[in-house]
Structures are given as C-alpha cells and as structure tokens.
Amino acid sequence: MKLRSLLFVPGDRPERFAKAAASGADAIILDLEDSVALEKKPEARAAIAAWLGGERPVPCFVRVNPLDGGQTRADLEAIMPARPDGIMLPKAEGAASVRALIAMIEGDAPPILPIASETAAAVFQLSTYGEVGADLAGLTWGAEDLPAAIGATAARNPDGSYTAPYEIVRALTLFGAHAAGVPAIETVYPNIADTEGLAAYVARGRRDGYTGMMAIHPAQVAVINAGFSPSEAEIAHAREIVAAFAANPGAGALKLGGKMIDQPHLNQARALLARVA
Asked: Per 3-state DSSP, what percentage of the chain is helix, strand, and coil (rounded to 5)?
C-alpha cells in the first residue's frame, strides 16, 4: 500500500468523503476520534460503515477512539463488518496497545497505523513496535496531544519549528518505524494556507527518512505527494548506482560521477527504486 499522503476527514461529514477520496491522496482517514463530538459518534459510525460498504476509490483507514475511552468496541462493531483497509489507533502505547486492539477485533485485523507519541508513557514504548511489525501499516506521531498530556504550553517555537522535547519524539518515532520495518509517516502541518511552509516541512521529512505524511485539508495533498515522490533525476541516479555495482560484482566501493559510492549508497538506491516500483 503506497502511503505518501493520508487525508483526514471527519466521520460525521459524509458529504466530504467523496471529495477526500478524489483529492489525490493515497489513502483517506475517516475519523471517529477528535473531530467528532461524543453525541455524534453513533451517526459518524453509521456514515463510515455505509461508505465502506460501497466502492472505494482509495484505501480507507478509520481512526477509532483510544482504547481506554470506552468507545473503541462500539467503533469496531460498527465498522469491521465493512472491512476497512486499515485502522488508525490514537494514543497507542507500544506493541501492547496493538495487541489489545487486535484482540478486540476478534478476527482478521487489517493493518494498524498507531499514533505513537500522544502520551508520556507512549514515548518510552516506541522501541517495541518491532514486536508487531507484521501487523502495522506504518508508524506516525502527533505534536498536539502530548503537550496537553504533560502540561506544556506549546510544542512549537514562534517560527513554527518544534521545541527540543518534541524534536526528540519525532526522531524516536522515525527510528522506531524503521526498526520495525514499516513506513514512517510524518505528522500534520496545521497551517493550511502556508503552502511554502508545507513544502519545506515535507522536504525536511523526506530528507530525514519519513516516507509519507498526514494531511488535514485536500489542498495539502498535491504538495505532499510531490514532496514524497522521487524526481526523475533521483531515479536515474539510483539506477546508475545499482548498475555500477552490478557491473563490478564484489566491489566494496566505486567511483561514479567523480564521487565515491559504497554499500550504503547502494542500499539507498535500491530502497528508492523499490518505493517507485
């Protein structure tokens, strides 16, 4: 499943489902958690189940409510008969939370995408996701719930960059995802109107090793897709690296275009070409 962009859409706004699916996003996330008021959750469950029962233009994840909130079982009872393509689990606290969700599903579980940084305890469980890597669609993080959970006044500096504690959480999520062998999905960029800032944020994420990102508005999707897609020049260079090593079996290092390349460059080239394929 290609996951460059995952677009959130509130579960109680079914009139927006088709627009979200037509946005160009690789997947949509039908939300039952934060964007839906408590009294509207039954209505949202019914709307999502009806949408999932029809023809799906793109893969559809459902963000259920947190395991400790008393709503998750009702979420699953409503949506699982329609077989969503994935489940997003908020406030996940490591492999134990993933196992608990799978046990609650009581059957074949779809791939799970944990939001892995929304409580203080969750940060210390980021290394455990390798235990359940085969059950995951990826791993993502959030910079909104954690400050509230620990009494911080903000997660960002005045210029929009993350403060030091949240840079650490972002990095740990990145490494936790790669250690588990699953895609690392960057968190949302909240300023919908700031296209340039979004492009820079996406470029930073891809530079650091993230392979996709969540979106909160259809206008963000094209920028995210472009930023997480290798350019033709990058693809051509990766093919040159692979071809160079294929032509020189047993070589540990080679000279290509006036620069030395070695095994890490070959690994990066193969990974890039695998994503394109």
From this structure: 50, 15, 35
Helix (H) or strand (E) segment spanning residue 186: strand 184-186
Tokens 């897609």 -> residue: 229
**Residue 247: is its pLDDT beyond 90?**
no
Burial class (CB in 10 A: 0-12, 13-18, 19+), 86: buried
- What is the DSSP track for 225-241? HHHTS--HHHHHHHHHH
Q: Decide which of 223 and 234 is more confident.
A: 223
pTM for this prediction? 0.90
CB atoms within 10 A of CB 118: 23
50: CB partners within 8 A, 6+ apart: 14
- Return the DSSP state at 70: T
User: Which stretch of 35-49, 100-114, 202-216, 247-261 has the lowest confidence by average pLDDT?
Assistant: 247-261
Are the C-beta atoms of 8 and 29 separated by less than 8 Å? yes
**Helix H or strand E encompassing 121:** helix 120-123
174-181 contact pairs (CB < 8 A, 24+): 174/208, 174/209, 174/210, 175/126, 176/116, 176/126, 176/127, 176/129, 176/139, 177/129, 177/138, 177/139, 178/209, 179/127, 179/129, 179/130, 180/129, 180/130, 180/132, 180/133, 180/136, 180/139, 181/130, 181/133
pLDDT tens per residue, range 10-62: 999 999 999 999 999 999 999 999 999 999 999 999 999 999 999 999 999 99
pLDDT digits (tens, 9 = 90+) for 79-98: 999 999 999 999 999 999 99
